[in-house]
Amino acid sequence: MAINTLIQTTDPAYPVRAGSLALQALMRDIRAVSDETIDLEAEEDRDYFAITQLVAKSLKENLKNPDPAHREGYLRAITDILCMAVDGVSPGDNWDPIDSTKRSFSGR
Q1: This prediction's pTM
Q2: pLDDT in tens, 65-85
Q3: C-alpha closest to that of 25 among 74, 63, 60
Q4: How wide is the angle at C-alpha 84 spanned by C-alphas 12 and 107, nearest 5°?
Q5: 8-state DSSP, 97
């Protein structure tokens, strides 16, 4: 808690990063459900219903966040991951959607 408070008070981009981290947390939750329910022999190889519920909850919570910077960070992360999917690539271990999108957002 103290570390988050320190980061929050010293990093002016913290709310934007918090939004981004919320999407990354959703992705970890999706991986967990997928890992628990995957069946490579089945037609549907994971519990898409449970994953859809996770996505809906995350969208609702994060797009209604009162901080516009948080919402921006969440949407920047979604946009970056969707662009990667369109390009046929996936994020690496050091994926930072705020860094990836900063050029487009600087000065706006």
Answers
A1: 0.82
A2: 999 999 999 999 999 999 999
A3: 74
A4: 35
A5: H
